[in-house]
């Protein structure tokens, strides 16, 4: 289980007179439960990646609290990370190593024996449907093959919680479907708590048990897709998302810009 409470993060950009502060996250709170897939849905720049980087202990929050299975990430980062698998945007794999070697190497970094990490690579290869890839060097892998190898690597220590930042970025339709299947298996067969960020409605509708809508660095709504549809009185999830994530002025100015573009 992952709990995020009142998170905030500012960045300083530039120096001297040019300096300005960007409030990237300004009051994000959510809970992600075990055996559920939770989607962080928000427009570009909403603060999703920054939030997930803080959960992964890659960035310290200015204020707020994050707990992974009750362990405070700020106070006990190593213990929290032992219970967390992180698939970030940077999916760097070692190209000269095979998929198995990449996975085992990460297992060793987590303190696993070579034999245990290799056995886990075999299990994950079945779950992620990537057995034929295991003994191939990752050099030349397709985007989908890379993503699966990186996901297996992130899961080598069998963490109960998984966070993924825009995992379907750059994947074609078949690779996307295959990733969705893998995430469902991890939820249903292994009871994992899975959180991923996206701005793709379809992804959320097809995969998520719970949705957290983030806009302007804040949580603006939380619930199942049917609950968010009911709350907004919309039939279409895209319409529901737009009404939750954008203000009246934003919607009006966007509509005006679109009509000018057409005329
Ligand atoms: N290191 C940084 N320095 C300055 N500003 C940053 C930094 N990282 C993020 N930001 C700003 O914080 C805001 C939130 O960014 P973030 O990447 O978290 O959004 P996002 O929801 O993941 O967006 P996207 O869907 O476009 O990836 C943006 O305005 C971004 O420009």
UniProtKB/TrEMBL annotation:
InterPro entries: AAA+_ATPase, ABC_transporter-like_ATP-bd, ABC_transporter_ATP-binding, P-loop_NTPase. It holds the Pfam family ABC_tran. Residues 2-241 form the ABC transporter domain. The keyword Nuclease does not apply. Coiled coil: none annotated. Keywords: ATP-binding, Cell membrane, Membrane, Nodulation, Nucleotide-binding, Transport. The keyword Cell wall biogenesis/degradation does not apply. GO terms for molecular function: ATP binding. Belongs to the ABC transporter superfamily. This is ATP-binding cassette domain-containing protein. It comes from Ideonella azotifigens.
């Amino acid at each position: 289980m992952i709990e995020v409470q009142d998170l905030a993060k500012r960045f300083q950009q530039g120096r001297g007179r040019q300096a300005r502060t960007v409030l990237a996250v300004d009051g994000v709170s959510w809970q992600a439960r075990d055996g559920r897939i939770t989607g962080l849905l928000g427009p570009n720049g909403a603060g999703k990646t920054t939030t997930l980087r803080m959960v992964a202990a890659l960035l310290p929050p200015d204020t707020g609290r994050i707990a992974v299975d009750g362990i405070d990430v700020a106070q006990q980062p190593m213990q929290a990370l032992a219970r967390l698998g992180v698939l970030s945007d940077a999916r760097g794999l070692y190209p000269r190593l095979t998929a198995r070697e990449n996975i085992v190497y990460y297992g060793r970094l987590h303190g696993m024996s070579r034999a245990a990490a290799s056995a886990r690579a075999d299990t994950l290869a079945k779950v992620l449907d990537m057995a034929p890839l295991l003994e191939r060097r990752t050099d030349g892998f397709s985007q989908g093959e890379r993503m699966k190898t990186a996901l297996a690597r992130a899961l080598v220590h069998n963490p109960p919680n998984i966070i993924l930042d825009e995992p379907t970025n750059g994947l074609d339709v078949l690779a996307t479907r295959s990733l969705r299947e893998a995430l469902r298996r991890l939820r249903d067969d292994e009871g994992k708590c899975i959180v991923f960020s996206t701005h793709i409605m379809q992804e959320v509708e097809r995969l998520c048990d719970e949705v957290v809508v983030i806009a302007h660095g804040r949580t603006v709504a939380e619930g199942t897709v049917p609950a968010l549809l009911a709350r907004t009185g919309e039939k279409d999830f895209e319409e529901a998302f737009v009404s939750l994530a954008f203000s009246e002025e934003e919607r009006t100015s966007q509509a005006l810009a679109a009509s000018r573009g057409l005329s």
